[in-house]
Amino acid sequence: MNVFLVYAHPEPQSLNGALKDLAVATLTDLGHRVELSDLYAMGWKAVADSADFRAPVEPGRLHYPRESKHAFADGTQAADVVAEQRKLLWADAVILQFPLWWFSMPAILKGWFDRVFACGFAYGVGVHDGERWGDRYGEGSLRGRRALVSVTIGGRAPHYSGRGVNGALEDVLWPLQHGTLFYPGLAVLEPFTLFQADRLSREHWPEVAARYRARLEGLFRDPPIPFRRQNGGHYDGQQVLRDDLGQGLSGARLHLVQPGDPPQTPLA
């Protein structure tokens, strides 16, 4: 299988760097083909601006989504964006390796999504008509692929629990896992997380490495997070969850298929 690893940390000798190297070695040993985008080493351009478009429709005023849609359709996107899109389409699974900074990903990784997940490629896909809002949230151009978020966190695990001061980790990662990865169709696995990452000693590394290897071995076997599909029948025509679903739940858990829920309509 083909695995695309997107790595975002400025220090090669960091814990994130070690996890990245472990992933490449493990996946290769398992017989998978691996492509790596080391964003800092590549000098990735994180800012989305007019330089992303070689033949702009409106040279005097930047409307980024409109230019993005035109450039994708017309084959005039920036070369670095096209290269990353090709890796995504080549991949059977995508792994993101990064540290949690201010409850989000490093800016360079956010900029990778801003530019690579272009209009017509990752959003603005499918028919938008009446009560259909396109092919998104479980459908779209990246459907059929898996995604794993591997994230290091400085805080303690209880701080990211349901009643923890930082909020539940599933809510912290919701914008990425549901809003960015599931949106264009990726099936998202439960994240691999390391808490108190800056306090990890060498003595703890063998246990961490063994735990990560186990997750990598299950990359194509473990069940994904059961997010509800937009067009699966669980949402009404305004994309609001039906009243008969999600009773007693709140937050991100509302949008997970629960035992006893009616089956979603099959994908075409």
Compact overview of the structure:
Keywords: Oxidoreductase. This protein is α/β, with parallel strands linked by helices and 268 residues long. The protein has helices at residues 15-29, 39-42, 64-74, 79-90, 107-116, 169-172, 174-182, 205-217; strands at residues 2-7, 33-38, 93-99, 128-129, 132-133, 146-152, 187-188, 192-194.
Mean pLDDT: 95
The name of the CATH architecture is: 3-Layer(aba) Sandwich
Strand % is: 5-15%
What structural class should be given to the helix and strand makeup? alpha/beta
Mind telling me the CATH class?
Answer: Alpha Beta
Write the element-wise H/E pattern from the N-terminal end onward. EHEHHHEHEEEHHEEH
Share of helical residues: 25-40%
User: What is the strand tally?
Assistant: 8
CATH superfamily: Flavodoxin domain
How far apart, in Å, are the first and last alpha carbons? 24 Å
- Low-confidence parts lasting 5 or more residues at pLDDT below 50? none
Rg (CA only): 19 Å
The number of helical elements comes to 8
Taken from the alpha-carbon principal axes, the silhouette is globular
Major sheet characteristics: 6 strands, parallel
Number of domains: 1
Using the coordinates shown, work out and report the CATH topology: Rossmann fold
